[in-house]
Amino acid sequence: MLEKALPDDESEFEAIRQVLAKLGISTEALWNWRRTSEIDSGERSGMTSIEHAELKRLKKENVQLRRANEILMAASASFAAELDRPTPQAPTDQTKVMPLITGFLERLSVG
Q1: In whole angstroms, what is the distance from residue 26 CA to residue 35 CA?
Q2: Range of the domain at 23
Q3: Domain count, the chain
Q4: How does pLDDT run across 48-80, given as a tens digit for each residue?
Q5: pTM summary value
Q6: Average pLDDT, integer, range 17-44
Q7: Helix (H) or strand (E) holding 99
Q8: 29-64 burial by CB neighbour count: b if 16+ within 10 A, else e?
């Protein structure tokens, strides 16, 4: 497409603009693609496409791990609160225990 447009136009830049317009691509998009290509090939310094994808994946994983950590901390606090609750125990005070023992012994001697 560029080869066809080039002979008709007086400059290569104008031919490129014409082809981009026919394809519906902005000049900025082309420059971004070119920069990305140069970075990926090592001609220009910067973060490569692979590094960018890895960073994006790690950020997503970090969000998921933080969410899981919050859930685990909430569950841990809930279980700890459950363990801290007093459990009902048998009476240890003699005034409460003696009537129980007396009642039990009376039932044994009646029978």
Answers
A1: 14
A2: 1-46
A3: 2
A4: 999 999 999 999 999 999 999 999 999 888 888
A5: 0.52
A6: 88
A7: helix 94-110
A8: eeeeeeebeebbeeeeeeeeeeeeeeeeeeeeeeee
